[in-house]
Each structure stands twice: as C-alpha cells, then as structure tokens.
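Below is a filled-in request sheet from our internal design queue. Each sheet records the structural input a requester submitted and the sequence that came back. We keep these sheets so that new team members can see what a complete request looks like end to end.

REQUESTER: design group, bay 2
PRIORITY: normal
MODE: inverse folding
CHAIN LENGTH: 98
BACKBONE (tokenized):
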C-alpha cells in the first residue's frame, strides 16, 4: 500500500508542534508553486514542500524553490517520516550553534 502525502503532512505537523515551531500551510496567490508549509521559531524561517514517499517537486516548483534559495530562503523537500525527524534534528542543531 502506498503512503499518501497526507500521512507525511500530518506527521510533519505533529513533529513541528512538538518541537515548538509555528507551522502553517502556505500558498502564493495565483501560483501553485509555493512550498506547502512555513515554519517559524526564534527568528528562523523555513519553507518545506511535502511529498509522498519518493515524490518529487514539479519543474515549476523546483524553479520557484531555487529562486527563493537565491534570495536566502531555506527550502526543503521532505518525502518520508525519517526525513522529517532528520530535518528537525538539523534545525535544532543549527539553532544551538548560533
């Protein structure tokens, strides 16, 4: 049975809340290329695209994410529960090193 993207979304939101991040669904008016979620904590802002396992962003999404990165945004693509935990571990480590 294939894991649905909604399972990844729910797991992501639970871990974000458990780690005290402000998390909201994100959309850009008139564009379907926005990352799915925005995370904010202690002045850190992170954008996350959630996909089903082994899912990939559309080319137009990749383009948007690269533009955002060129402006200094942190944009991640997550497609598994393991990647969720790895991301939050990395974010916690980066915040500890500031």
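RETURNED SEQUENCE:
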């Amino acid at each position: 049975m294939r894991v649905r993207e909604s399972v990844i979304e729910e797991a992501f939101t639970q871990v974000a809340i458990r780690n005290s991040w402000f998390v909201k669904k994100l959309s850009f008016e008139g564009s379907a290329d926005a990352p799915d979620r925005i995370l904010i904590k202690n002045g850190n802002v992170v954008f996350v695209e959630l996909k089903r396992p082994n899912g990939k962003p559309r080319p137009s999404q990749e383009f948007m994410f690269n533009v955002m990165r060129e402006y200094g945004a942190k944009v991640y693509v997550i497609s598994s529960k393991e990647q969720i935990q790895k991301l939050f571990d990395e974010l916690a480590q980066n915040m500890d090193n500031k």
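SHEET NOTES:
- The two ends are 42 Å apart (CA to CA).
- The CA atoms of residues 31 and 61 lie 10 Å apart.
FILED BY: M.R.
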